[in-house]
Amino acid sequence: MSAPARMPWAFVSALSLTVLISYGTIFYAFALFVDPMGRELGWSKSDLMAAYSLALGMSAFFAVPVGRLIDLGYGRTVMTAGSVLAAVLLALWSRVESYPAFVVIWIAMGLSMSSVFYEPGFAVLARRLGFVARRGITFMTLVGGFASTVFIPLTHLLIEYLGWRSALLVLAGFNILVCATVHAVFIPPALKAHPRSPDAPSRALPASARSVLRRASFWCFVAASVLQGLIAAGLPIHLIPLLTERGYGLEMAVAAFSIIGPAQVAGRMAMAAGERAFGMKGTGIVTLGLGVLAFALLPLLPAGSWLVAAFAALFGASNGMMTIVRALLPPELFGRDNYGVVQGMIAMPVRLTTASAPFLFGTLWAWWGSYTAVMILCLAISIASLGFFLVVLLLQKGREKPENLLALDG
């Protein structure tokens, strides 16, 4: 499929808006409903978070089939249905009275997550835009980075003035009136795909995607992504108690936490400006190197030091930039065919791991008796993630040399 003559910014902007709303209403807003639901229904925070973790885990199992459907041209159907499902589930949540029903709602929400978050959005952009998809994907991550900035205060106000049940109906309205409508109107219907083998549609994974699974560089890339995802998902929930344990006041801990979101967006903007200088592979090294630097700095900070802002900025920038690395580097490493499936194959282990990350960090804290072990683990994980990424580049370099020699011989 040939790339369009110019970037269709109306399409990219509209789709990016739906990603912002989907993350804001499904992913970020959940934390604000925990306290009012606990007070009214008598459910513990651990009970509520267990259902949320189940949704994240279930979304992993749908990642590859959803990517495959988008590769086959069903992006409009997948994303529209995902937004409609999210709206229905949020409405059902607003009426929930029993915990088993609540768990079922959030298990089903996993299917919606896999259909409306970054990976399906990236896949739709890649299919629609061809070679100029890089700019569209970068723009989508910039817009999506404001999801918590917009929807956390908005959801807080809705709960305060309307109550948590009515607030959920408003969030459902965003999904059905904005997201589902945009997906149905802006995403083109099924288009002719790139030529594939005759048996491709009948297989869960096409041959080119199965060949990626046989490459050590792919699994090293997955390992780097999983390790980085562990920190990205596990630490934010524990960051404020970690900082207060280390002698920071609550106000300073909250202020440091509030830097992470803007730093994610700033990191993505800097990445968009600097990618030409470093290339995507070099940018990946910088991205994971910032994570190592952040966790090497954290244990050295004196209690109450304003330098905690530097840690939050480094951590946030690394997280934000990694989203783009995971979106744009795989086509460069593993080929442009079956983008949605490859993204799903990467997302599946990442989501399965990140679903358990908050629990794992909490268990480590309880076992050690302080957050010191968590900080040490985060530093070790960030170093290991960078190490796996460097191995990816070494394996890729070794793979390219024979191909270059063959090209010269030809």
Summarize this structure as a short list of keywords or feature phrases.
mainly alpha; Growth Hormone, Chain: A; 2 domains; 15 helices; 83% helix
List unreliable stretches of 5+ residues.
193-202, 403-410
Classification by helices and strands = mainly alpha
Superfamily at the CATH H level of the largest domain?
A: MFS general substrate transporter like domains
Number of strands: 0
CATH class of the largest domain: Mainly Alpha
Mind telling me which CATH architecture of the largest domain this is?
Answer: Up-down Bundle
Please give the radius of gyration in angstroms: 21 Å
Count the helices. How many?
Answer: 15
Give the overall shape, derived from the CA principal axes. globular
Which series of helices and strands comes N to C?
HHHHHHHHHHHHHHH
3D architecture notes:
This protein is mainly alpha-helical. It has two domains: 9-189, MFS general substrate transporter like domains (Growth Hormone, Chain: A, Up-down Bundle); 208-409, MFS general substrate transporter like domains (Growth Hormone, Chain: A, Up-down Bundle). 83% of the residues lie in helices and 0% in strands. The protein contains 15 helices and no strands. The chain has helices spanning 9-28, 30-41, 45-71, 75-94, 99-116, 118-129, 133-144, 147-162, 164-186, 207-213, 216-245, 250-297, 308-334, 339-368, 372-409. The longest helix is centred in the C-terminal third of the chain and has 48 residues, at 250-297. The two termini are 27 Å apart. Mean pLDDT is 88; it is low at 193-202 and 403-410.
